[in-house]
Amino acid sequence: MIRKAEVIDFTTYTDTGCQIWRACLSCPLETCIEELPAGVASLRGKVRHLLARRLLSEGASVKAIASVFGVSSRRAYSILGGVRETRQAG
Questions:
Q1: pTM of the predicted model over 0.85
Q2: Number of C-beta neighbours around residue 48 at 10 A
């Protein structure tokens, strides 16, 4: 009887990675983008959110943040989420 481990040993796997990283086995992401519901779009949204929050904490206005991302001020507020709480806390 052949065990699963033995079957895996007989396969050939070429680690070609994805659009984010060159090899799956050395990828720095905790979760594979293929496992995310919206894939790369979800990851880009998270990165944009983090960058917008950082700009806000460094003193940039919402209008300036909107300009950086090429969106309206209203969309910038949406990206920032609870901007009022951030301004009061920081």
A1: no
A2: 14
